[in-house]
Structures are given as C-alpha cells and as structure tokens.
Design goal:
By secondary structure, the chain is an alpha+beta fold. About 40% of the residues lie in helices and about 20% in strands.
C-alpha cells in the first residue's frame, strides 16, 4: 500500500485547513474530478524527497532534507490524512520550470531511486507530471497563493 498525494493551491493556511474540514479530510482530487480547487493528483510523489529532488535538479543543487520545507497543518490522526504546506521558495522554483527544461528534468528525475522506471525507460515518462506541478505552481505564484500537499495512506 502506498501513500497518496494531492497538491493544490490556496490563499493561505486557514483556507487550506477549511478545505480539509469541508472535504472531511479529503482527498482533494477524486478520480478525475477535482473538488472545487486547483489541484493535481501526483500519487506516490511525496514533497520531502521525491518532489524535492525535482526542485533540487531545477535549482542545479544537491537534494537536502530542507530542499522543500513544509509544516504539518492538519491531521486526521495516526493513519492520516494529513495536510502540509509547501514553502514559497519551492513553489517559485517549480513555477520557474520552462518548457525547454522539462525533458532534461524528466530524464534526470525519472532515474532517481524513488521513481526509477528501469534501464529501458525513455526518460520522458515524467514530462506530464512536471508539466502538471509546474503549471500548478505557476498559477499559485501568479495568484499570490501558496501550495499545499494532502496525503493519506
């Protein structure tokens, strides 16, 4: 069993927490339907390690434990769901990804241990995911909003 992750944008922490209350803990994305918020379902892509490695590649730095900083804002208990914030620096880095960078980032990112898609992977498998998260981050930045991550076992 894996952990599910939905990323979404909201005005502030209070608005993100209200959404959790309105959704009885989520999820934010239900099948192909997004619940009244700009969100993407990134399945097993956690913010602290997997997404943070994309951020590090974009910044041309090494991954570190604080590459993406977040804070637990809401908890449904020991087994979740949980709501965490994503720091604005990570949001802005993701928002800065240009179309010209996407393929090379996908090639690097698809080879990390957490995503490794095999020796025969073409390297473009993560392009749609990068396009989704970069687009969400861009819309959040441009609207003066913040990114959040809903997760659940």
């Amino acid at each position: 069993m894996g952990v599910l992750y939905d990323y979404f944008r909201a005005d502030d922490d209070a608005a993100a927490k209200r959404l959790m209350d309105e959704l009885d803990g989520g999820p934010v994305v239900r099948g192909d339907m997004v619940v009244n918020v700009d969100a993407v379902d990134l399945k097993g892509i956690d913010p602290a390690v997997t997404l943070a490695q994309l951020v590090a590649f974009t910044r041309q730095t090494e991954w570190a434990v604080d590459t993406v900083e977040g804070q637990l804002l809401w908890s449904g208990g020991e087994h979740g769901p949980w709501l965490s914030s994503i720091d604005d620096a990570a949001r802005d880095t993701l928002a800065s990804i240009s179309d010209d960078q996407i393929l090379s980032l996908s090639q690097r990112w698809s080879r990390i241990e957490e995503l490794w898609l095999g020796d025969d992977a073409a390297g473009d498998e993560m392009v749609p995911v990068i396009e989704e998260i970069a687009g969400l981050a861009r819309r959040a930045r441009d609207a003066g909003e913040h990114l959040y991550c809903w997760s659940c076992l």
